[in-house]
Design brief:
Function: Cleaves C-terminal amino acids linked to proline in peptides such as angiotensin II, III and des-Arg9-bradykinin. This cleavage occurs at acidic pH, but enzymatic activity is retained with some substrates at neutral pH.
Structural class: alpha/beta
Strand content: 5-15%
Enzyme class: hydrolase
CATH class of the largest domain: Alpha Beta
Subunit structure: Homodimer.
CATH superfamily of the largest domain: Alpha/Beta hydrolase fold, catalytic domain
CATH architecture of the largest domain: 3-Layer(aba) Sandwich
Shape: globular
Pfam families: Peptidase_S28 (PF05577)
Number of domains: 2
Family: Belongs to the peptidase S28 family.
């Protein structure tokens, strides 16, 4: 395991130092940072989220009739509240270990009894334990080439059929797909691609429009900046904005790097300018992660954090006129809110938010194949260092690191982009504090393609377990979502012609 982590750190340094700035802005969703999935799952364990662990022999390539290789797909099932013929809530697994998402998707658990629902969590191929080629799965595009959203959706559709065939009383059960983040995108696309399999979908924080030509690349980081300005005002955002030039000034010299290493209390001293680039990216990702998990109560989704963590972070950054080194010291204290809430962390590891698990490696491959999500910053309308979006530069980085060429417009071609009118029964929920709000469906398209906005919500807050400190906006959002779920199920049950096994 130690050797693996060393290799990962080397891989991170290679990624961030070898390619253009566009490649450094690969889209990332919240995920556990450790390579030990079991430990990550236990961080936010849900005491009443009990499930059976099962496996299904899934076909490797659903779109090739010559090849018949298979692999074991893991899925989790809870039938405690299920009533025969009752609905199945199917979670479309993200880019990570499915147990982590099962423990963090409280909406399904909290409402299972009300709906009499069976809960199923399907693991996405190439993540968690669902590795089609075992330890070889990440060796090269020869093995990774089967890691696509299209193959994953087919996995889910076939797994649902298997469940309805093999679980007594489930044959006519209506199935509703649910997911958050990338899982939310999959939930929406599953309804679009397989409307015969799922009667509807709840797609939370699903940026299905964060693709080339659909959403301005600068919107994502502007929302992060707005979040910090909302809770910390101009002193907070100005402090972060000024820090980049100070770091840049210290970056070229050995003495400057020593100062940076000391001020940021780094576990490993910065030896080169490339190391400082990693530091810059680490800081940038920390601010982004704080925006994504800016929840109204203490939570441990990514790290143990206080309620409204951005407000606590910005309390450390209220004097933008500090001398350079003192300002960096304040930045380090602010970063400590994210990485050192217990006060026990002796030093910071800049690889902590970099590629540190198979889940991250798998997502980076997807980001270099079909999931091309343009992001950019200008340093003026946002608080980040300027980085332009240039597809050619991005593609070059992908070719060198992943040995594949990204398909710039494939997702829009495959799933329709903004052309959603032909679809039905999808709830798109988005929180205004979530950077991914930029690429979400935030206006209702029809009476059954509904946008639900959570004014003070961060990343898929509505899918989390209910909490006594939930804000009125998320409570209302969940009630709206449940209204539509009940409506879809009632309509399905009234229509006997739909009770035919596909």
């Amino acid at each position: 395991m130690a050797v693996y982590r060393v290799l990962i750190v080397v891989f991170v340094l290679f990624l961030t130092s070898s390619f253009g700035e566009s490649f450094r802005l690969k889209a990332r969703f919240p995920n556990q940072r450790t390579s030990d999935h079991e430990i990550a799952a236990k961080k936010t364990i849900c005491p009443y989220c009990k499930y059976e662990t099962k496996y299904y022999e899934q076909k490797l390539d659903h779109f090739n009739f010559e090849k018949n290789e298979t692999f074991q797909q893991r899925y989790l099932v809870n039938r405690k509240q299920w009533k025969t013929g009752g609905p199945i809530f199917f979670y479309t697994g993200n880019e990570g270990d499915i147990t982590w998402f099962a423990n963090n998707t409280g909406f399904m658990w909290d409402n299972a009894e009300e709906f009499g629902a069976m809960l199923v969590f399907g693991e996405h191929r190439y993540y968690g334990e669902t590795l089609p080629f075992g330890k070889k799965s990440y060796e090269s595009p020869k093995y990774l080439g089967y890691l696509t959203s299209e193959q994953a959706l087919a996995d889910f559709a076939i797994l649902i059929r298997h469940i309805k065939v093999t679980f007594p009383g489930a044959k006519n059960s209506p199935v509703i797909a649910m997911g958050g983040s990338y899982g939310g995108m999959l939930a929406a696309w599953l309804r679009m691609k397989y409307p015969n399999v799922v009667i509807g979908s709840l797609a939370a924080s699903a940026p299905i429009l964060q693709f080339q030509g659909l959403t301005p690349c600068e919107d994502f980081y502007r929302i992060v900046t707005d979040d910090f300005n909302r809770d910390g005002g101009k002193p907070c955002t100005d402090s972060i904005r000024k820090s980049w030039d100070i770091i840049k000034k210290l970056k070229p010299t050995e003495s400057g790097r020593r100062i940076l290493s000391k001020v940021f209390r780094l576990c490993s001293p910065l030896q080169s300018e490339d190391n400082v680039t990693v530091l810059e990216d680490w800081l940038s990702e920390t601010w982004v992660n704080l925006a994504m998990v800016d929840y109204p109560y203490a939570a441990s989704f990514l790290e143990p954090l206080p309620a409204w963590p951005i407000k606590v972070t910005c309390s450390k950054l209220q004097n933008e006129d500090l001398p350079d080194i003192a300002l960096l010291g304040a930045i380090a204290d602010a970063v400590g809110v994210y990485y050192n809430s217990t006060g026990k962390t002796k030093c910071f590891n800049t690889s902590q938010q970099a590629v540190s698990s198979l889940g991250d490696k798998g997502w980076y491959f997807q980001a270099c194949s079909e999931m091309v999500m343009p992001l950019c910053t200008d340093g003026k309308n946002d608080m980040f260092y300027p980085q332009k979006w240039d597809f050619e530069s991005y593609a070059k980085g992908c070719q060198e690191s992943q040995k594949v060429t990204p398909l710039q417009y494939w997702v829009e071609t495959e799933y329709g982009g903004r052309s959603l009118e032909a679809h039905s029964n999808i709830i798109f929920s988005n929180g205004r504090l979530d950077p991914w709000y930029a690429g979400g469906v935030t206006t209702s398209v029809s009476s059954s393609l509904v946008a639900v906005i959570i004014e003070d919500g961060a990343h898929h807050l509505d899918l989390r377990h209910k909490n006594k400190n939930d804000t009125p906006s998320v409570i209302r959002a969940r009630e709206i979502e449940k209204h539509y779920l009940h409506e879809w199920i009632a309509t399905y049950n009234e229509n006997d012609t739909k009770k035919v096994l596909f």
